[in-house]
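B., you asked whether I could sanity-check this one before it goes into the benchmark set. Here's the sequence:
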Amino acid sequence: MVRVLVLDNPSPPHEDLLGRLTAEPGLTVVGQAATGAEAISMSTTLGPDVVLVGSRFPGVDALEVIRRIARPPVPRPLASAHRPAPEEAPPPRVLALAPAADREYALGTLRAGAVALLTDGATPDELVAAVREVAAGNTVLSPDVPRAIVEAVRRKSAVRYDEQLTRLQGLTRRERDVLVAIASGHSNAEIADRLSIAPSTVKTHVGRVMNKIEARTRVQAVTFAYESGLLRAAACG
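And here's what the prediction gave me:
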């Protein structure tokens, strides 16, 4: 059973979404939060698999909430001779909705740690499908997201660009090819086929790329590809 926590301001569409998620086989809404403090607390106490951050809760506070949910600063208890250190449970995976016109917020959710992003025009079917994909460990990006990233990146500071360019220059030519393929939405199997290399080799390259660009998720790798200039607006058509 996939456990879902919803963070959004109450409204009729919000209630309809809760009902739809609850009615779906294999999904259950374990809670709904109307404030960031509630969401952070409930994500810790309820242990959801997926946290859905609605588009009616945008802004700087929402980004901090996503960051604290996706990367909780939970201290690890020390092990002893009589009590081994317990295994840490992975944090919830965050699926964010963003207003279509708010490109800075869309980019901010990915930087904060969201592993999936849809625009607020997504249909209920698309939302349910995205929740399932996220729970399965996959990433989901709305078709509008790459263009939103490009528009936001155009306004980034030169300092940020210099940092990303330095990391990009640390990649080999093959690693750049792999990063382009990741940013284009290809799976490891598809990358292996496109580059005519073994899937195990792709896995090794992906690990090295993620480490060098300091990305925790493939969504963050997509963001990096645009921020660094590896992929530009022309690539989006």
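One thing to flag: Residues 174 and 205 are 8 Å apart (CA to CA). Otherwise nothing jumped out at me.
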